Amino acid sequence: MPSSYAAAAAGSSSRNTNRKFTAAAAGSSSRKPNPTSTAAASTARPSAPLPSPAPKPPVVSPSAVSDSDPSSYSSSGDEADLTASDSATASVVSAYLSVAGEGADLSKVGIFLSSAARRRSPPCLICFDPIRPSDPVWSCSSSCFAILHLPCIQSWAHQSASGAAVPCPTWGCPKCRFAYPKSQTPTSYLCFCSKTVDPAPDPWILPHSCGDVCGRRLNANLESGCEHTCLLLCHPGPCPPCPAVVPNAPCFCGAHREPRRCAHQRYSCAGKCNKRLSCGLHRCPVNCHDGPCPPCAVRGKHKCECGETMEEKLCSERVFQCKRECGGMLDCGKHRCERGCHGGKCGECPLRGRRTCPCGKKDYPKLECDAEAATCGSTCEKVLGCGRHRCPERCHRGPCDETCRLVITKSCRCGGLKKEVPCYQELTCERKCQRLRNCGRHACKRRCCASDCPPCSETCDRKLRCGNHKCLSPCHRGACSPCPLMKTISCACGKTCFEVPCGTEKNQKPPKCSKKCNIPRLCRHKLECRPHKCHYGACPPCKLTCGEELSCGHLCKERCHGPISPPNPEFTLKPTRKKMEKHIECTPGTPCPPCKEVVLVPCFGQHLGQERAMPCSKWRPFPCQNLCGNPLLCGNHYCTKSCHVLEVPLNQPEGDPIASVSKVNALAEPCEHCDLPCQRVREPPCSHRCPLPCHLSDCPPCKVLVKKPCHCGAMVHAFECVFFNNLKAKEQVKVRSCGGPCHRKLPNCPHLCSEVCHPGTCPSVDQCMKKVNVRCACNTLKQEWVCQDVLKEYRNSGCDPKEVPKSQFGVGLLACGEDCKKKVKVQDSELHLRKTQEKKSPAVEVANVPKRRKRRDRGQEVEVSKFQEVKTYVLRVLLIIFLSIIIAAGLYLLWKGIFRLSDWMNELEEQRARQRHPRGAML
């Protein structure tokens, strides 16, 4: 590999360390080019002198692009993205091919790389839908490199190859019309370099690419001698020219050699070609050129081939023939040469050799060349001009009559008419052909057509997919070709524009123009507003504050609502989608709205913290949600009316801050009158209310009788509320005691408390000294224990005394003796005797009583009599016989009908034969 090519490869690979288009064709537009890679490429250039200085790579302006620019189809983007993508593309192209020179190939590479850097793909030219990164696509491999949907191009190829009346072996690209054979119809989704099938979408690489090195051959022409491959990552569009250096590249004439780039190794040295021309006498005087040398242009006098005439001719035209006949004697010595000017001998006499009569049936072997052959007298029988009949005349000299007058039965070209006419005459009928032409829409209408209908001569005139134009091609089958026209979409001022295919302009956004809007403002801030860029429609409203003084004294704080310039109707863009317009409170060009300065307004009752913030234009007094709260005349309660304007009472001194307004206020109303009972707490406190209405003096003592039970609950005492509440706590306990024994039940045993009526728990809870009768389990033994010992015994045995019922208290604490066992045996023998007596006297069963069946078995056990079985069998046999008779009758009738149909058809054939041959029928 040459050193310069390795340097360019190193410069390109340094930018692609992560196998991503970082600052390259498929990278993000916000990334910047790597300066180190450019420097590496520049330092690795060969030291050999180059023929021309390294020009800068062409940078395509986004405002002027051709129809092959994919970026021209997309909507305008941010200006920063455009600048970044153009600089990135320029750095990639300059690092990859620093001295390639300007050309169509390099400009196209820059266009495609700029579009890839901006991540914008054109719409499909067949369906006009945008091409998404996840859609399978196909890319044209010819000069246009158009990107289309894979299903769309497959349908296009199928319709182009099989849509016409005669199947076509090729189909063309919808954009450049490059002809592909039917075998190259795309069947799979490939990346741009065709190395990966169904490339997975990756947000870090270019859509529809594999992310690997392209590797395509830079020069597809095998005779060019270039064997290098593309070092860019998989990309759309053409590969850049080969940047490798050939050390001894010969010029076209081979006289000069110098180091050249591989893509430009075929060059002219600007010297004379000096190659020997085809004449073999002179050398090429043209400067060093590609291809064969031109014909020799040296003029001179040259003889013709026969040598009789001499004319001035070009050296390349020195061999020529004059216009006179030769006239030389043939080798027979009797006839002269009838050819024109020629070189060499005249040749043998054509009349020598085998001689025959004119029809060729009789030979004359010894006849001289100057003697005329006699006719044989038989029929000529040479094939006439019609090619089917022979000449009926006798052997004659000269050509046969070309007009065959033999009368034959001919059919017209369409086969609709048969007639006897001379053979030379062509038979045509007047019937018009009704077959459809190759377009499939119009009838042939040609008289007497022989099924070779000519192509349709009318114009297709169908509306194209763009919706703006009609198809001007001849009438055809299948889908029409895409509209070849381009539409220009410009900004409002018309200085920035780009072209898109016709029909896609409705889905495109206008370009963003960096020029300033030149429409002057009409509001009062025309000197303070910041200038804005070119735009469609009316100018945006002024964003400054209005600042005019209102009648209330405040300044208007709304956005400027002065007049604005109307939109330019020539460049008004019609939106394709309805967008929700932002709500603007101030309509442009209207007076200032009411003042919206927020002020605090107190309520009617001037309650603290109930001030309400209101716009200045909507100021008004209001009642708050609180109650009035003004003290009533009773001195104990407050006004429970809702917030209202207070009326100054007559007995209130002047200057009292309670009153909110004076008596003059028309909205003032008096507070309510207190009708509530006394709600004071009595002294001493009690739960009884004062019977007097609301008053300011002390309440009278409470004389209500209070019922209090004694401590044990045996009796109830009645006390006056004042007397009982004035006693101390110890005195209240002493007064409530009944003085008798406590009637409360002890918690652990079934006995009552033996103490005097007392408050709290009973003291003898675990020291009950009453006697309890303790028995054994069979109630045979009996003893008297103290209740305290019974409780201890229960606790020792692990039983809770509270769970023992009162009737079983003390039972089972004594162990059974021998007397208890004897009583148990006597009881068991009596029980055994009672069981044997019960077995000897069983219950008498009622005979002849059928058991009741279960409900689910009632309908299943049904006996069928023999008569019913015979009846069922006979009915089945009769039914089978009846069906057999019906089938046999049907087959018989069908057989008879077929024979009758055959006889009827034979009669029709005989009638038709009689109509065709009436004479034979009469005989």
UniProtKB/TrEMBL annotation:
Positions with biased composition (Low complexity): 1-14, 33-47, 61-84
Biased composition (Pro residues): 48-60
Domain RING-type: 124-177
This protein's UniProt keywords: Membrane, Metal-binding, Repeat, Transmembrane, Transmembrane helix, Zinc, Zinc-finger
Entries under CDD domains matching the protein: NF-X1-zinc-finger (cd06008)
GO MF annotation list: zinc ion binding
Region (Disordered): 1-84
Membrane-crossing segments per the record: 873-895
InterPro entries the UniProt entry points to: NFX1_fam, Znf_NFX1, Znf_RING
SMART domains: ZnF_NFX (SM00438)
UniProt superkingdom: Eukaryota
Similarity field: Belongs to the NFX1 family.
Name the record gives this protein: RING-type domain-containing protein
Species for this entry: Urochloa decumbens
